[in-house]
């Protein structure tokens, strides 16, 4: 049965399954990103703050991705690490206009990459690929992408493949380029 | 970045210009628009003109000018509408709603100087009842006529008026007015007073006698921290008992509690005149921050969308925002012990048994007649020994009942031709185990092995096996085995009788179990 599955996958009839964790501070646009990826542009009228987490499925580049859309409120953030052990990729969403909480976003990112579950038990030497979406980049108050890179100290991260992409989850700018990179990394890591 | 720092530097902004004429800035954070984003209120106190600045994140949302010298600010909630802001200036309360002036309320005059308006000295808000009933709050207004007014901000009726011996300059409250609220009132010369809403009539009772002038009172619902101008902070319980004392090097400017339910953190932030802010956990210094100029005001709570934010304003009008690090671990307990020298724990809890009524009565009797008490004790001890021995004899004579057939070990049907009786004799640490084997079939049984095993307890068996080569029909065979119980804790012995077979039989064990028994030995006293 396993052989049959891999044969179908090789034929590209059956798609590979991967779990993607979507994290970030509250009000950064995680649920909007998931909605856009799932419905290809169609958007529901209102997005309410997520409580706990939501699970959604969508497909991209030969992968069936199960997205765990986690709540970003500070009281739910300890929940994130419960899902680290079986995730194949992470999308970290940042509100580029929220300059005050950039330090908090940086700290949460550091806490995540230093978590033992994200480093150990991986077949590859590198950790889980992390796609960072600098969301709300269309706003006037948004800080430039270079500054986001500096504030999050992304150049110091060597343990995980990292990709930073400016995005706008309302129009979908940057989402597909970012997801393409993440899918390639997941396939490359040969989970 | 050190991994284990307590605070994250969220923002430092000198362009907001929070420099006030009098050097006093009062801060508060509240969700003023009911949109989940907490705004920062900064009241810049001036002699002629005071300014109220409201910030949304790092941006100034609005600025309101007051034509008087303001002395106090607080926010209060009203059912079904966004929270209001109350500013006390002169003898009036200025109420703002939706960032606009709403009402000006003149405090009713009273006291000896009848006809003269009372100046407001302090303001605080207190929740009226539990959030499931109503979330509206009451205003506590301290006036220059030595009284505390409790005002309903919806109708502007004074619910209660409490007379005090001195002018209230500091008001801190916790709880719900309708059920159980605690209000602490600090005065410049008459000490601190406590007021409980569940004790009728509501009146202020002395909490602490006057000592050095009070700088600030911080109250987190259970513990009261009082900073005084003699460079000390004392912690008190609500009963007025001193818990601990912290001595610092220089003048204390302000203190505030930092409590995070997510991280189970409870710290006291202390701003000092040398530009440092110290953070104490249970009286031990865990962290300190350094600033160019000293911090004159700070508030802790939810700011913007982030819980656990500490907002500070320096003397130069610079605004600092620090956010609690979620990954902070209180691990440095050991190296902080050295800082304990500055901390003295005033009251140690008494160790030893609580003085119950029984304990006290017995001590009294022993003091009155020691000889009689000793005799009584010895008599009781003898009775206990006797009773224990009698019980033990009853128990050991009924040990036969404890002998039971092993249910778990299957005995072949055809092998049920042997009768086993096990008897335990003796009452002390030495026992005699009598085993009676009887052939109840009409056949001759040969090559039997009796195996004994200690299952439980520290029993010593004289031997662990016995062999019977031949048993004629209806024949009886007695086996006597000495059992020692050196620890007197009892135990369990199992007896298994096995019929030996030839090794070439296809069996995992050489032979089959014919019968078995289990003997319980009760603990000896």
Structure, described:
With 191 residues, chain A is an alpha/beta fold. Chain A contains six helices and six strands; from the N terminus they run αβαβββααβαβα. Chain A has one domain (15-189): P-loop containing nucleotide triphosphate hydrolases (Rossmann fold). The longest helix of chain A has 15 residues, at 175-189. Chain B has 525 residues and is mainly β. In chain B, 8% of the residues lie in helices and 50% in strands. Chain B starts with 6 loop residues before the first strand and ends with a strand. The chains are: A alpha/beta (191), B mainly beta (525).
Key phrases:
heterodimer; A: 191 residues; alpha/beta; Rossmann fold; 6 helices; 6 strands; globular; B: 525 residues; mainly beta; Methylamine Dehydrogenase, Chain H; Immunoglobulin-like; five-stranded antiparallel β-sheet; 3 helices; elongated; BBS1 (chain B); Bardet-Biedl syndrome 1 N-terminal domain-containing protein (chain B); GAE_BBS1 (chain B); WD40/YVTN_repeat-like_dom_sf (chain B); magnesium (chain A)
How is the topology of this model organized?
The complex is a heterodimer of chains A (191) and B (525).
Chain A: H1 2-10, E1 16-24, H2 30-39, E2 53-60, E3 63-70, E4 89-95, H3 102-113, H4 116-119, E5 130-135, H5 145-151, E6 162-166, H6 175-189
Parallel strand pairs in A: 1-3, 1-4, 4-5, 5-6
Antiparallel strand pairs in A: 2-3
Chain B: E1 7-13, E2 25-30, E3 39-44, E4 50-56, E5 59-66, E6 70-78, E7 81-89, E8 92-97, E9 100-106, E10 120-127, E11 137-143, E12 147-152, E13 157-163, E14 170-176, E15 180-186, E16 192-196, E17 205-208, E18 214-219, E19 224-228, E20 232-236, E21 242-247, E22 252-260, E23 265-272, E24 276-281, E25 284-290, E26 295-303, E27 306-314, E28 319-324, E29 343-345, H1 357-368, H2 370-397, H3 399-402, E30 404-405, E31 418-425, E32 430-439, E33 445-456, E34 460-461, E35 465-471, E36 476-484, E37 491-499, E38 512-521
Antiparallel strand pairs in B: 1-28, 2-3, 3-4, 4-5, 6-7, 7-8, 8-9, 10-11, 11-12, 12-13, 14-15, 15-16, 16-17, 18-19, 19-20, 20-21, 21-29, 22-23, 23-24, 24-25, 26-27, 27-28, 30-38, 31-32, 32-36, 33-35, 33-37, 34-36, 37-38
């Amino acid at each position: 049965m396993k052989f049959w599955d891999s044969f179908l996958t090789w034929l590209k009839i059956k798609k590979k399954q991967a779990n993607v964790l979507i994290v970030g501070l509250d009000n950064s646009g995680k649920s909007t990103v998931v909605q856009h990826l799932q419905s290809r542009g169609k958007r529901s009228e209102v997005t309410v703050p997520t409580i706990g987490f939501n699970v959604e499925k969508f497909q991209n580049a030969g992968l069936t991705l199960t997205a765990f859309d986690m709540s970003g409120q500070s009281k739910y953030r300890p929940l994130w690490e419960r899902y680290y052990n079986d995730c194949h990729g992470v999308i970290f969403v940042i509100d580029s206009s929220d300059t005050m909480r950039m330090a908090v976003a940086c700290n949460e990112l550091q806490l995540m990459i230093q978590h033992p579950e994200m480093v150990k038990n991986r077949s590859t030497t590198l950790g889980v690929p992390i796609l960072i979406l600098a969301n709300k980049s269309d706003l006037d108050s948004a800080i430039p992408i270079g500054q986001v890179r500096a504030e999050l100290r992304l150049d110091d991260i060597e343990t995980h493949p990292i990709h930073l992409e400016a995005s706008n989850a309302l129009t979908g700018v940057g989402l597909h380029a970012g997801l393409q990179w993440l899918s390639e990394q997941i396939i490359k890591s040969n989970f | 970045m050190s991994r284990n720092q307590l605070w994250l530097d969220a923002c430092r902004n000198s362009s907001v210009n929070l420099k006030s004429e009098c050097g006093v800035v009062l801060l508060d954070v509240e969700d003023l628009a009911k949109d989940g984003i907490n705004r920062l209120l900064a009241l810049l106190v001036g002699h002629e003109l005071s300014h109220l600045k409201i910030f949304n994140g790092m941006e100034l949302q609005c600025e309101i000018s007051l034509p008087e010298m303001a002395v106090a600010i607080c926010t209060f909630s009203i059912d079904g509408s966004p929270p209001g802001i109350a500013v006390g200036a002169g003898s009036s309360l200025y109420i703002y709603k939706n960032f606009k002036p709403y009402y000006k309320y003149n405090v009713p005059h009273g006291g000896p100087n009848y006809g003269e308006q009372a100046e407001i000295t302090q303001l605080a808000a207190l929740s009226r009842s539990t959030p499931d009933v109503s979330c509206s709050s009451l205003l506590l207004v301290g006036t220059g006529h030595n009284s505390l007014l409790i005002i309903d901000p919806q109708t502007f009726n004074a619910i209660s008026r409490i007379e005090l011996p001195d002018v209230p300059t500091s008001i801190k409250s916790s709880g719900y007015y309708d059920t159980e609220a605690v209000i602490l009132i600090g005065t410049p010369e008459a000490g601190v007073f406590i007021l409980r809403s569940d004790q009728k009539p509501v009146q202020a009772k002395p909490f602490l006698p006057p000592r050095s002038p009070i700088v600030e009172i911080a109250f987190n619902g259970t513990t009261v921290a009082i900073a005084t101008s003699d460079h000390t902070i004392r912690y008190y319980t609500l009963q007025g008992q001193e818990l601990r004392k912290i001595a610092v090097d220089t003048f204390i400017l302000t203190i505030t509690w930092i409590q995070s339910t997510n991280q189970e953190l409870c710290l006291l932030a202390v701003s000092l005149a040398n530009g440092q802010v110290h953070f104490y956990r249970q009286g031990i210094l865990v962290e300190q921050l350094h600033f160019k100029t000293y911090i004159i005001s700070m508030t802790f709570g939810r700011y913007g969308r982030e819980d656990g934010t500490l907002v500070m304003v320096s003397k130069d009008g610079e605004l600092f925002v620090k956010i609690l690090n979620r990954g902070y671990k209180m691990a440095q307990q050991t190296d902080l012990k050295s800082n304990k020298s500055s901390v003295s724990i005033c009251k140690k809890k008494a160790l030893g048994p609580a003085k119950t009524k029984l304990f006290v009565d017995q001590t009294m009797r022993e003091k009155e007649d020691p000889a009689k008490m000793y005799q009584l004790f010895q008599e009781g001890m003898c009775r206990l020994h006797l009773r224990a021995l009698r019980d033990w004899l009853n128990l050991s004579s009924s040990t036969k009942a404890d002998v039971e057939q092993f249910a778990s070990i299957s005995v072949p049907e055809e092998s049920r031709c042997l009768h086993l009786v096990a008897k335990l004799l003796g009452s002390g640490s030495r026992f005699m185990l009598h085993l009676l084997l009887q052939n109840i079939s009409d056949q001759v049984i040969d090559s039997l092995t009796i195996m004994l095993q200690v299952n439980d307890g520290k029993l010593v068996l004289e031997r662990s096996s016995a062999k019977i080569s031949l048993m004629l029909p209806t024949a009886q065979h007695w086996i006597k085995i000495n059992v020692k119980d050196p620890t007197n804790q009892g135990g369990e012995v199992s007896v298994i009788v096995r019929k030996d077979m030839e090794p070439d039989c296809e069996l995992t064990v050489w032979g089959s179990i014919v019968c078995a028994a289990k003997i319980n030995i009760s603990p000896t006293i």
